Amino acid sequence: MSTEMRVALARGASAGMAGVFVAAIALAAAPPALADDAADSAVTWSVTPASAAGPDGRRVMQVELDPGQRVTEHLAVKNFSEREATFALSAADGYYTETGRFTMLPADRTSTDAGTWITVEPTVTLAPNETRVVSFEIAVPQNATPGDHAAGVSASVRSTSAGADGTRVGVDSRVGFRVSTRVTGQLAPSVGVGEVRAEYTPSWNLFAPGSITYTYTAENTGNTALAVSDAAEATTERGVLLPGESRDVRTEPQPAWPLFVLTKDVTVDAAVPDSTLAAAPVTRSVTVWAVPWVHLAAAVGVALIVAAVASGRRRSRQRLDDLVARAREEGRREAVEVS
User: Fold this and answer.
1) Which positions of the chain have pLDDT values less than 50?
2) What is the pLDDT of residues 22-78, one digit of tens each?
3) Chain Cα centroid distance, residue 222
4) Is the dihedral of CA 322, 325, 331, 337 positive or negative?
5) Cα(257)–Cα(206) distance, rounded to whole angstroms?
6) Of 59, 154, 139, the residue nearest 106 (C-alpha)
7) Per-residue buried b or exposed e for 206-242, using 16+ beta carbons within 10 Å of the residue's own CB
8) What is the model's pLDDT at position 137?
9) What are the tens digits of pLDDT across the range 17-32?
């Protein structure tokens, strides 16, 4: 028996993608002029996309540029603290974690893609409660690959903390937003699906179906971002796949009756956020044993009960026959004695 389960690696959701991220990175060696613990604990700040006039309400910066094109954009840094603070500004390649959260490469890893296209001034010093608009440039290389490229821009404050052995460890706390650059050219959305595995879980209720859970690896094999939305990925944010990224997917349990062997077709769809483009669906078949152990156990139990009842009836009938035979024999004896 074959049935189809639709798992949509798609259907628009870029508005739900996280645009702001927070990260704390432990540094191998503490850089000079780090803020002390007490002072740093009082620093709070934000950084958002902006126009030249100030914050413009965006959470994510999305631009479409030609190879070789340059454009000037803006960010706004706000110091919510009651003291002056200096923030380090930086850009790096972005990616999605296994939990679906967007982040950017830490300072000790080298960017090779969109993070290298962004140039921003290294630091900005803000007075208490001051907001400052800072311009930065995005320069797309002439040989950039068409499609989607993700980066992050952040403002960070560095602090130190003492370990148990007295060693001072530097911590870089970052707040930032996502910069998505789409390079013009031919877009080719494509999704790959690895081997589908299935696990059947029986129900202890004889009158209810069991369930099948599917697991597989979805990979973005095209050059555009893909938005994922299925029963396993409760939010679209968790399902975003950038070009070249892959993620293990585990679906919610699907109802299925135990018919010894089940063959299911799992179809994975993919589409580009905010676009009519879609990747060709990928279908994988999977076979799983669905032995009705509970039903078999119940059938065996019923059979034993029936056998026991039948055996009891046979023994009762035999005892009754024995009593009748004994009574007849005694009757014959009495008749002989009287005669």
Assistant:
1) 1-20, 24-40, 231-238
2) 554 333 322 333 344 444 457 899 999 999 999 999 999 999 999 999 999 999 999
3) 19
4) negative
5) 10
6) 154
7) eeeebbbbbbbebbbbbbbbbbbbbbbbeebbbbbbb
8) 98
9) 334 455 543 333 223 3
Backbone angles phi, psi at 79, to 5 degrees: -95, 105
Q: How far apart are CA 302 and CA 59, in angstroms?
A: 64
**C-alpha–C-alpha distance, residues 241 and 10, integer Å:** 10
Tell me the one-letter amino acid at 106: P
Residue 127 vs residues 163, 174, 189, 255: alpha-carbon distances, Å: 31, 19, 46, 60
Q: Which residues, at least 6 apart from 172, have a Cβ–Cβ distance to it below 8 Å? A: 24, 25, 26, 27, 88, 106, 107, 156, 157, 158
**What is the rounded distance in angstroms from the CA atom of residue 43 to the CA atom of residue 80?**
7
Two tokens, residue 91: 């850009």
User: Which of 246, 121, 113 has its CA nearest to residue 180?
Assistant: 113
CA distances from 43 to 40, 46, 81 (A): 5, 10, 5
Residues in the chain: 339
Q: How far apart are the first and last CA of the chain?
A: 80
Q: Which amino acid is at 153?
A: V
User: What percentage of the chain has pLDDT greater than the value 90?
Assistant: 49
